[in-house]
Design the sequence.
């Protein structure tokens, strides 16, 4: 197959492109920064220079592809409006751009998020109503709803927390644990669904094999969730560190968010941190495709840590 992949040089995209090329596929990779493209395979990758604004141009002609995998978007933004701009409006432009082409994809995959469904302390299924609590989750859910009316079959997939080397977000957790520090919102121990990046890539490959004309939505997670205390303990074990978990009052977290002490700690992240949990079930995906995740929490963290060390991030 020939596949158009946006976000090809990002965390998930890089892992996915390598897997697709190993399987003999050709990838048309949307690349904003040529320097980052050096991480992609040297063969069977065609570079499409540009960013998401490329799809706004009604004269844009895209190489004919069998499928589209849209991974590009923002997970942390300086302005709340940027979530809508890059995670919702950009999807509308991409769908319209593909619709203008002389070819149509057999399937269009969209990387949504568990945040689109909203918080839950028990495993959510695709039949449950969605109640996102912040701008990021709302933008992803709005994009999912647009895709339900696309003139070609689509699949929106909602991963839990993704662990793997190359991730700019979860490396923060590893660095804190390396320094023997962890934190929890005071009075809470949120339950979280997670997925290893290699298992997520396998899920994407499985979803690409859907030959139906239906629009699909799937959660993607390991069948076992974790609570945050267990996660910090597992990180400590992975890094051979004793981690002291500090309860942090919500008011302090709110103040740190307002001061923007970290780009990752914006209003979206604050609301997610103080939520009671984000838990889902991927049984529908397993039922429909036969996909089964292979890496539990400890194995996934160990793989990620090894990759971070090799890249000298940790």
Sequence:
């Amino acid at each position: 197959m020939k596949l158009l992949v946006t976000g090809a040089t990002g965390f998930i995209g890089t892992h996915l492109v390598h897997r697709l090329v190993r399987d003999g596929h050709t990838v048309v990779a949307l690349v904003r920064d040529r320097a980052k493209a050096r991480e992609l395979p040297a063969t069977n990758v065609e570079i499409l220079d540009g960013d998401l604004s490329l799809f706004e141009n009604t004269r844009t002609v895209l190489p004919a592809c069998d499928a589209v995998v849209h991974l590009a978007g923002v997970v942390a933004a300086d302005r709340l409006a940027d979530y809508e701009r890059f995670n919702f409006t950009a999807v509308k432009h991409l769908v319209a751009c593909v619709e203008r082409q002389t070819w149509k994809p057999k399937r269009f995959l969209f990387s949504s998020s568990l945040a689109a469904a909203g918080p839950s302390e028990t495993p959510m299924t695709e039949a449950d109503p969605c109640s996102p609590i912040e701008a990021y989750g709302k933008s992803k859910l709005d994009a999912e709803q647009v895709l339900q009316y696309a003139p070609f079959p689509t699949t929106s997939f909602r991963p839990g927390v993704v662990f793997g080397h190359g991730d700019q977000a979860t490396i923060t957790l590893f660095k804190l644990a390396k320094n023997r520090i962890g934190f929890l919102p005071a009075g809470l121990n949120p339950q979280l669904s997670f997925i290893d990046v290699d298992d997520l890539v396998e899920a994407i490959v499985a979803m690409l094999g859907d030959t139906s004309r239906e629009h699909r939505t799937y959660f993607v997670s390991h069948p076992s969730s974790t609570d945050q205390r267990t996660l910090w303990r597992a990180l400590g074990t992975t890094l051979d560190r004793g981690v002291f978990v500090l309860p942090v009052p919500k008011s302090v977290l709110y103040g740190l968010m307002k001061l923007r002490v970290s780009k990752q700690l914006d209003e979206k992240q604050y609301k997610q941190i103080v939520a009671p949990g984000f838990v889902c079930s991927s049984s529908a995906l397993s039922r429909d495709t036969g996909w089964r995740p292979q890496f539990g929490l400890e194995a996934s963290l160990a793989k990620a840590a090894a990759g971070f060390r090799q890249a000298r991030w940790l």
User: Anything to note?
Assistant: The chain is about 35% helix and 20% strand. The mean pLDDT is 94.
